[in-house]
Design brief:
mainly alpha, 17 helices, 2 strands
């Protein structure tokens, strides 16, 4: 495993092969593991558990929404805002699950349910999400092809991106380890805006999703504006969106950031690449609920169609398999992962400040 104290330039130069303890993590081993996962029944859809999950999300979402429309004051309003933010994230977990056909193998049904839970309930276009997520799964931690490590043009998740930053983005990169959490609170707004641009930017495409996205804003801004007033409606929606961004950041940020990065021309077998660039987090049932199963992230990347309710079982099999074959398997706690991510982002910031200092010295030297 690459040391966290290694400077960013050296870390970026480390190949996937060097990041793995052996070179035997190839397609043959992956197929052996896959056979064990299949034999354990991990790929079978969890219809009952998924149905309960769907029912609870819909129940809490609708109940919280109706209660918020009553204009509660003080503590109850705060509770409802937190509850609805958490439910929106759980809804996005279901959209993610339907996108991978985890609940059932019927593609059209899964697509429609994805529209319901992602586009309508959260306001984030399922089409945009699936396009990005497909790229991420195909190229995890690839500095050119993984959209999840591009930092929305503001953050720098790998050393080479430092040179591309100018203006405000450069200032953010200088102190990104400290700014990451307030910036993540804006993540929901960014995701929604990008999704809207994609769907509504293509006039003849996505008619059903356009309708659902429009309905989302009618439900959250139109009707509340009539019943509670425009200011109250905007405030509620903004607060929920800020909390959604923080929650998603706590889940998504720490699965890959701080793990070895890959250049586009770097070739590595799928199994080896996944083990090297991904970390698992807590393995309790509570973790599974809070993280929507993505705490079992190695297994999710290896077997995306395994339902989230069976990823814990797949994790035990994968962990034992990797130990048996002396393969890299990164498993840690959420707190430790946050510390690793902070140190890594701070290393990039230090690299950015050195880069700027060297450029100023060169300019001054040329001037004199």
């Amino acid at each position: 495993m690459t040391s966290l104290t290694m400077n960013p330039e050296a870390r970026a130069a480390v190949t996937i092969t060097a990041a793995s303890p052996t070179s035997v993590a190839d397609s043959r081993l992956y197929q052996l593991l896959r056979q064990q996962i299949i034999a354990a029944g991990c790929f079978r859809p969890t219809r009952l558990a998924s149905s309960v999950h769907v029912f609870l999300v819909l129940l809490v979402y609708c109940g919280g929404y109706i209660a918020l429309l009553q204009g509660p004051d003080g503590g109850l309003r705060s509770v409802l805002v937190f509850l609805l933010a958490a439910t929106c994230v759980q809804s996005s977990f279901l959209g993610h699950e339907f996108g991978h056909l985890g609940c059932n193998r019927k593609r059209q049904l899964s697509r429609r349910l994805g529209y319901l839970f992602m586009s309508l309930l959260t306001g984030y276009a399922q089409t945009h999400y699936l396009q990005n997520h497909k790229q991420h799964h195909a190229h995890p931690n690839d500095t050119a092809r993984d959209p999840d490590i591009q930092g929305a043009g503001v953050l720098s998740f790998y050393p080479a991106s430092v040179a591309t930053k100018t203006g405000l983005a450069k200032r953010v990169t200088d102190w990104q380890a400290y700014l990451i959490w307030p910036l993540l609170s804006l993540q929901a707004f960014s995701l929604k805006i990008r999704g809207l641009k994609l769907v509504f930017g293509r006039l003849g495409s996505y008619p059903a999703e356009k309708t659902l996205l429009a309905l989302h804003y009618v439900l959250w801004l139109g009707l509340p504006a009539v019943l509670l007033g425009p200011g109250e409606a905007l405030l509620n929606y903004a607060l929920i969106s800020l909390l959604v961004g923080l929650y998603l950041g706590c889940v998504v940020l720490i699965n890959h950031v701080g793990m070895p990065m890959r250049s586009p021309d770097e070739k590595a077998p799928f199994f080896q690449k996944t083990l090297a660039t991904t970390r698992d987090l807590g393995s309790t049932k509570l973790n599974d609920i809070l993280f929507g199963g993505t705490n079992n992230h190695i297994e999710h990347h290896l077997f995306p169609a395994v339902p989230i309710h069976k990823l814990g079982m797949a994790r035990k099999i994968t962990r034992n398999f990797c130990r048996q074959h002396e393969l890299t398997y990164r498993e840690t706690t959420w707190i430790q992962a946050v510390r690793e991510v902070f140190r890594y982002l701070d290393e990039i910031s230090q690299h950015a400040r050195r880069h700027q200092s060297d450029r100023r010295q060169n300019v001054n030297g040329e001037t004199t």
